[in-house]
Amino acid sequence: MLAGAVLARDLTLGLVLVGTIGFGTLVLLDVPFAIAAWVPLAWIEYSHLTGRAPVIATVALLLGWVASRRARGRSLRVGVADRTAALALGLLLVWLTLSVAWATDRSIAWGEAKSWYIAAAAFFVIANAMATPRNVRILALAFVAGALVSIVVGLSGHGGLTTTADALDLATRQRFAGGQGDPNYLAAGLVAAIALAAGLLPSIRDPIARLGLVGSIVALAAALAATQSRGGLIGALVAIVAAVVLARRQRLQAAALGVFAIAAVAAFVLASPDALHRVTSFNSGGDGRADLWRVGWRMTEDHPVAGVGLAGFRDEAKNYVREPGSLTFVRLIVDDPAVAHNVYLQQLAETGVVGLALLLAVIAASLAAAARAARRFEAIGDQALATLARAVIVASIGFLTASLFISNSTDKRLWIILALGPALLGAAHRAPSGTDSQAEGADEQVHVNQHVRSVTHGSMTRR
């Protein structure tokens, strides 16, 4: 009634209220499904549609998870499966908080620290709440669905940097940015979504659902080509190589899917002269990354251990333009300061060797957890979840490779993918021997046998 009254007076505020009530109720009823509903928001976080909804939803998820644990009498201690990654992430948060002390602008640094805290909260909640075979599948499906939602939002003209005409007209020089607002950030996520969609195929038995998943892969590959992101395409190629290496018994299928995705991207690029020119031209003057990277290395040489402070790259960059060596894109450093466009270099420049080492430790621990989960699922005979675990590794590798060209350390999509590793390992420890599908099939067969026996017994009794 309250939401209806507000809707009658203010449509935007009313929709926000309806969304808040609906999501809050879902958090109270089922945290895993609430997480699945939250994932698409991470894909459209910077569109004009969401506002601060992703941040509010993340806090609601954290509070809901804590409340559900306490209500069931469970402790809030980190599970064994993700303890290494959680410890590394905790130490990273401590170091980032300390780095605010020597940052140039502490107000900006605190704002960046809050983004780190929210990303870490999402990691902890996902790693713990989604650690069952059913939940990890739901989370992977939600990630793919979020990518499709981002594409739809971009085509509708609410994606930020692109319009409907720009998205559909192949003759323009505008690049498709989806609901993420930036084509390079969108491309990194699309690479991961394609890998997860391929990893989910063995878990889907329904022919129509499998066909829909294959169609999603085609749509994601076409959107990846439309971004015209060289970093995204490089990440995709590295992901394909990783998939073939990790596939083991399914190398032929992995190679076939890789060729299929490459063909879809190539078809789109060849149909667009501007896209083909951008992807294949590396000597058109550059886009300023080389200058930003040079400045980042200069910062690192001056502050190798502790860095210049969290979120200090933009403020400190202007102090390094007078050193020897030509800089072409000085505007991006002095007049309109940009980020480093390399997540690892920015981490190194702002938080030093310590910060970068801790970030890499979190990444390594998450990937190791996914690898251990894959071996565990294989040992108990669950090939479908073993394939999904390897797909998570491939998705992470593709995303992290594309991150060589963007600064996305607090991107929630990155932390969703990384959290899937510990969640899968927790699911592997909880899974019984034999596949989930086999267990479900056995239960169904038991019911069928009982029904047959009851019918037979009844017939014999009547006789």
Describe this structure in words.
- This protein is an all-alpha fold and 463 residues long.
- The chain has one domain (83-431).
- The chain is built from 19 helices and no strands.
- The longest helix has 37 residues, at 343-379.
- The protein starts with a helix and ends with a helix.
Low-confidence stretches: 161-173, 434-453, 455-463
Round the Cα radius of gyration to an integer and report it: 24 Å
Helix count equals: 19
Supply the number of structural domains. 1
Overall shape = globular
Strand proportion, as a percent range, falls in under 5%
Provide the helix percentage. over 70%
Mean of residue pLDDT? Answer: 82
**Terminal-residue CA separation:** 62 Å
User: How many E-type strands?
Assistant: 0
Which H/E pattern describes the elements? HHHHHHHHHHHHHHHHHHH
Structural class: mainly alpha
Largest sheet: none
What is this structure, in a nutshell?
Helix content is 72%, strand content 0%. It has 463 residues and is mainly alpha-helical.
